Amino acid sequence: MDSWLSVDVSTANVLSRDSRGSVRGVKTTIEKMPDKVLLKIFSYLSHKQICSMSRVCKKWRTIAYNTSLWSSVSLRPEISGLHVTSLEFLLSLISVRFGPSLRYIELPIELITHTVLHELANRCPNLTHMLLDFSTAMQLHDFSELQAFPTKLRYLCVCLSEVIFMEGFMRKIYNFINGLEILHLIGTYEKVEEEEEEIYEVINVHKLKSATPNLRVINLYGINFVDDSHIDAFSSNCIQLECLAVNYCSKVTGSTMKTLFQRSKRLRCLLMNQTNLISEYVMQVEWEKSSVQELDISGNDLSTECLIDMLVRIPTLKFLSAGQMNGFNDAVLNAFMEQGNVRHLIALNLDYSDNLSDECLYKFLSRYGHQLQGLSLAGMPHITDQLWNTVLPVLNNIIIMVMGTQERLSGNVLVDQLMDGIATNCPRLERLELKWDPDNLRFSDKSQKAIDIFRVKCLKLKCLVLSDGRYYEIVKANFERADRLTVVRTTTCCSVSNYYLLQNYKDLIFN
């Protein structure tokens, strides 16, 4: 039985009074606990653990079958979901366990059939969120008999295949998805080789946009065929659009951005990380008339002139991510300070901006650091712990910080002093990442005391990411002794981002 049951609840001594009023000890067992208490305990378990617990006894099996425990289900075992071995077993699950309580489900390609979709439509009337993973498909099931599909969907995520054309399936569901508010189309960016012979448009975006007029959030991630015409198509039909993300869509150049903002008056979040924006197109946008508040243009080759022109014209910018850009230099940051509207800015990411001087960054942070909730200045060897220690007293509202570089430095980082400064000045801190090479971190025999102070003062801390090494092991052991087991993580499996501060962040979680 799992460790969560290791508490002495099975043989607990309970005080009660007999008929004459005297106190006596009564032994009880977990089997005598009320069902609603057991149900609450089970609600903290994963579905894999619930399935294991269901084999303990008949009572626990009944609790495990309670449909309230099955409102959100993943059937993708490679993404920590359940492994369903047959369609027959899934159909029985839908009828016995899921039912009206099911609100979210993730299905892998082998379980996406017309029979399964019919059952979900008929037996799960409250299903509003669905993920369909076609990414590993080499061929689709036959959907010619598909006559029903969940009709109350508000969120749909489709993981695309590299080679399988989806139009046959999509044509069958167009009439059922006009209530969608959030759409994710996830491409195969990580799998694409540098020299691709031919790019297939595996889903017809132009037809899809006609079937989904109520979209508020559109996320097109890493799709190699998506270009500016697809952005134009969505903007022509989705007047409710608030958030558009086209990260890692390398064919997007920005040629339809002007039209996008003219049509989508409510668009406040635009994420275009690692696209191929052209300065001429970006400068044509009427930024001063836009409602954009959150902007990610990282990894684009925009000129200094373009960046200045854009940043001084945006009326209310709250979130800016502009890392990995040679054109982002002191002239841009100074123009933003002197001519732009910076007083609403709460999140800034300038990672790998080597053309920014520490003097200019100090000037900016001294003036506006008090209002920042997210700050990421990673990947710049000249931004050392000395600058951070200097500006930390101003960063008293910071929630997210990313600092350091993986490059070996000539000098060393005095990490004890840095952690003490963070603990003293940043009580609201929730996420922190130190990217410095472990060989550059210098700490003393009294390091445990500095970590103790940091842990005690930063009580809201959810995530601390460090490079593997001796300091990582010391910090991890310290937090684990205080029963904060999940806080300290390594850069090999975790990274911190300002994206947590996006207004639509929860809508943008897709995998």
UniProtKB/TrEMBL annotation:
F-box domain ranges (all copies): 27-73
GO terms, biological process: positive regulation of protein ubiquitination
InterPro entries named in the record: F-box-like_dom_sf, F-box_dom, LRR_dom_sf
Species for this entry: Sipha flava
Stated name of the protein: F-box/LRR-repeat protein 2 isoform X2
Pfam families named among the record's database cross-references: F-box-like
SUPFAM superfamilies: F-box domain, RNI-like
